[in-house]
Amino acid sequence: VCCRYQSDAERIKRALVNRLAKYNLRLNEDKTRCVPFSKRQSILPRKRNTFDFLGFTFYWGRSIRGAVIPKIKTSKQRLRSKLRALTEWIKEARNRMTLKQVWGLFCAKLRGHFQYYGVSFNAEGIRQFLYEAKRIVFHWLNRRSQRRSFSWDKFLLFIARHPLPPMKIQHKLF
Predict the structure, then answer these.
(1) Is the dihedral of CA 27, 70, 52, 41 positive or negative?
(2) What is the pLDDT of residue 155?
(3) Model's pTM, two decimal places?
(4) 3-state SS of 80-109?
(5) Residue 99, CA atoms < 13 Å, CB-side half-sphere
(6) Angle, vertex CA 138, rays to CA 133 and CA 139, nearest 5
(7) Residues 40, 19: Cα–Cα separation, whole Å
(8) Do residues 118 and 125 touch, judged by C-beta distance below 8 A?
(9) What does the alpha-carbon distance between residue 60 and residue 56 come to, in Å, rounded to a whole number?
(10) Which residues, in sequence order, are CB contacts of 166 under 8 Å at separation 6+?
(11) How far is 90 from 86, CA to CA, in rounded Å?
(12) pLDDT category, 150, cuts 50, 70, 90?
């Protein structure tokens, strides 16, 4: 919930706690907090003027025309956890499935990531995920046997023949 005034935010939070209590629910206090995020604070150092929400880091930046606007990028913690999960998946899948099946599921995972994280101002975040994901898959596909399956050049030829989903901004926020 975004509010202009701190008092409004506190009033809404109290009302929400009371409303949820009627249904025997409660707010998770670790995940619920009031975060100041205003243009006036955009001159502060970036660390103090950012917050993470739903896998994104919200911060203040400049538009092409120089106006101060809110921007979004992939949260560093979420990027690391997604890459860790991809590594665990490819370790398990590399010997249980054919290369075609592994590649199909890998492309599906990339599509899902691009559709969720493909928002305005986050092109660098999804580009970084794609780069790291390709490196991880290349590494673990080469560990299917004692002989290497791919050199990097062969892997790039394989990608050219079996293209990855397009990396594009799915949701324009501004």
Answers:
(1) negative
(2) 92
(3) 0.81
(4) HHHHHHHHHHHHHHCCCCCHHHHHHHHHHH
(5) 13
(6) 100
(7) 33
(8) no
(9) 13
(10) 114
(11) 6
(12) confident
Alpha helices in the chain (DSSP H): 6-21, 76-93, 99-117, 123-141, 152-161
Q: pLDDT per residue over 69-105, tens digit each?
A: 888 999 999 999 999 999 999 999 988 999 999 999 9
Kindly state the helix (H) or strand (E) to which residue 168 belongs, with its residue range: none
What is the largest distance, in Å, between two alpha-carbon atoms of the chain? Answer: 65
- Rounded to whole angstroms, the Cα distance separating 155 from 158 reads 5
Structure tokens at 68: 């101060």
Rounded average pLDDT over 110-118? 94
Q: Which two tokens stand for residue 148?
A: 């290497």
